[in-house]
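Bumping my old thread because nobody answered last time. Still need a sequence for this structure:
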């Protein structure tokens, strides 16, 4: 299944095995092996492949699209919380530098 998915995504992106291999830092023979199911890409190469082919990693590993959407929304919330924490630290530092209580 993974092999077919990789090939389909590459063909949809209109890229050759050589182009994908160069982008991933592997040979076109390695890409051929991925697509034939003879070898499985390591997770770091699969992540780069997903980015290159503009697909979510879940597309390749068979994650249910609802799960992927929830994970993407959670990631968005995590980013917002990180930004809020940073802003609060900045406000606290500013308040301390001006001798205000927060």
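Sorry it took so long. Here it is:
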């Amino acid at each position: 299944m993974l092999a077919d998915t990789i090939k389909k995504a590459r063909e949809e992106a209109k890229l050759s095995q050589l182009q994908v291999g160069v982008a991933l830092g592997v040979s076109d023979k390695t890409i051929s092996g991925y697509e034939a199911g003879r070898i499985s890409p390591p997770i770091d190469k699969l992540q780069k492949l997903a980015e290159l082919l503009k697909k979510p990693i879940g597309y390749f590993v068979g994650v249910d699209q609802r799960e992927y959407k929830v994970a993407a929304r959670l990631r968005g919330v995590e980013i917002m919380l990180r930004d809020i924490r940073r802003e609060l630290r900045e406000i606290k530092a500013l308040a301390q530098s001006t001798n205000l209580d927060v």
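The chain has six helices and no strands. Let me know if any region looks off to you.
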